[in-house]
Design brief:
Largest sheet: 5 strands, mixed
Radius of gyration: 33 Å
Number of strands: 10
Helix content: 25-40%
Distance between the termini: 110 Å
Strand content: 15-25%
Order of helices and strands: HHHEHHEEEEHHHEEEEE
Length: 300
């Protein structure tokens, strides 16, 4: 028969056997099934082709949108960088001039420290730090909080703000960021202290013990008390997420803590202390120098 399907056709072995088993006319039914299978195969291949084309189109669209966003972000960052560089000469203060003479404009402490859209002092301002990078450019910070004196050092500069509670806040902008991008730790200072005053602090003590030496630690404790426990317990590549940094007259001290989960109230226990007499501190993958002019320490 012209339309007989060969039993060796691999695509038809099963339909043919089924037809024979059920006693159907293999000449008509199987030919019909063969045609149906061809159309089914056509529809399947058409669907696969359309689906693949649609997926490819969506992928290309997503890649184009991502590329566009990256370009826009890069352009925005470049604009902030250029705007920041324009501020350097205007606001850099001669080392001979004391901050008291400049009458720093006080910032409302709670909003400046805990509701700040540009940076958060509990976290290191590393390249992958919390918040968009462009928010940490000097121009964006000045636009949000007003201009403030800048001190130019050899490989970095720092900005000095002061709160209405007389807490002095130091922001550091290294040469690697063209002196315009905030990196490293934001320093809080309530008192001018030396390392000798921390001699009684050791591993196993609590943040409350540190507060008894440096009042700035109380601001850290308040911030951590508001922070989700999951983030605190998460840790990072360098250790604990719970850190206080103390800029001293003779160096910089970084203290790590762990959360005592057995305490009824949050209790932060010292797990590690790192002191640098040369003021160079690595934190969040960034090494910064935190040396400031002696006249910029809190005097009251």
């Amino acid at each position: 028969m012209d339309y007989f399907v060969s039993p060796y056709d691999p695509c038809m072995d099963f339909p043919l056997a089924l037809c024979l088993f059920l006693g159907y006319n293999t000449q008509g039914v199987c030919v019909s099934m063969k045609i149906s299978l061809k159309w089914a195969l056509f529809y399947v291949l058409t669907f696969v082709l359309l689906f693949t084309t649609a997926c490819t189109s969506q992928k290309e669209k997503a890649e184009a949108e991502a590329s566009s966003r990256a370009a826009a972000s890069s352009a925005a960052a470049q604009a902030e960088k250029e705007a920041s560089q324009a501020l350097l000469d205007k606001y850099t203060v001669n080392a001979a001039v004391g901050l008291e003479e400049l009458q720093l404009q006080p910032q409302e402490q709670d909003s400046f420290l805990y509701e700040n859209p540009c940076f958060y002092f509990l976290r290191s301002q590393s390249p992958s730090a919390y918040g968009a990078q462009q928010n940490r450019y000097l121009s964006r910070i000045f636009a949000r909080f007003g201009s403030t004196p800048l001190r130019k050092m050899a490989n970095y500069l720092y900005a000095v703000y002061e709160t209405d509670a007389k807490t002095r806040v130091f922001l550091f902008f290294p040469k690697s960021g063209a002196f315009t991008l905030l990196t490293g730790r934001v320093i809080l200072m309530c008192d001018a202290l030396s390392y000798e005053e921390f001699r009684g602090i050791a591993k196993g003590n609590t943040m409350d013990d540190v507060v008894a030496v440096d009042r700035a630690a109380r601001l850290y404790a308040r911030g951590y008390d508001k922070t989700e426990v999951s983030w605190i317990l998460g840790g990072n590549a360098e250790g604990s997420n719970i850190v206080t940094v103390h800029l001293l007259t003779d160096g910089v001290l970084r203290i790590e803590y762990v959360l005592d989960e057995t305490a009824a109230l949050r209790k932060y226990v010292i797990s590690k202390m790192q002191y640098a007499a040369d003021f160079n501190l690595t934190d969040g993958g960034v090494t910064n120098c935190y040396r400031i002019l002696q006249k910029d320490y809190v005097t009251e």
